[in-house]
Amino acid sequence: MIVPVTQSAVAPVDPKAAKVARDFEALFIGQLLHAAHAAKLADDPLAGNDTSFRDLGDRQLAQSLAAAAPLGVAKLLAGRPK
Question: Which percentage of the chain shows pLDDT scores above 70?
Answer without folding.
Answer: 68
